[in-house]
Structure formats: C-alpha cells, structure tokens
Request: fold
Amino acid sequence: MKTIEDRDVIEAFETRLREELDQTARLIEESRAYRAPVELDQQGVGRLSRMSAMQSQAMVQDITRRRRERKVAIERALSRIRDGEFGYCAECGEAIAVRRLEIDPTFEACVHCAA
Ligand SMILES: [Zn+2]
Reply:
C-alpha cells in the first residue's frame, strides 16, 4: 500500500500540483481580457445585451475568484511539501490516506477531522 512516507508518492503529488498550478495560472491570465468593465453608454449596445454582458462578466469573475482560491490552495500544498508537512493532518497530525490525497492533494485534514 502506498503511504505518504514514500518519497515517490510525494514526488508524484508535487508533479501533479505543479501542473495544476501552471494550468490555473494560465486560465486566470486568459480570463483577464473578459474582466474589463462593461461599457455603460446608451448608444451601441441595447439594454438587454448590456445586461447579458454584465451577467457573463459576473460569471467570469466568479470562475476567476474560484481559480484564484484554487491557486492559493495549490501553493499552500507545495509549501507543505517543501516543509515536510504534506500529507499530515493540520488538525491531528496523523497521516492523511493517500487515497484521500489522490482525490485532492490540497486537502489539509484527514477524513476524521474534515467530517
Ligand atoms: Zn486529523
């Protein structure tokens, strides 16, 4: 059974986290273009298309906010790897099951403490 003490288990999580970090940073960068303020002048676009533009902008902002939160969580996981704390529950200090970390390597608590 794989355990968090295995160096290659940690390395595999580190690779996965770095890839997700790159991807998340790229997606945040790509959505920058959609976050420009919606033009509010009365000519050109009609009221309905302005509303729809504002709604999609709100959606993009929401997605971007969640991506930023995800980026912070990934960065925290990577710094726990550096500090040798990765894979141990932040609440009780017990090893977190590798199966649980495979679901999401940014989990900081074991299944008991997270419940
Ligand atoms: Zn715990």
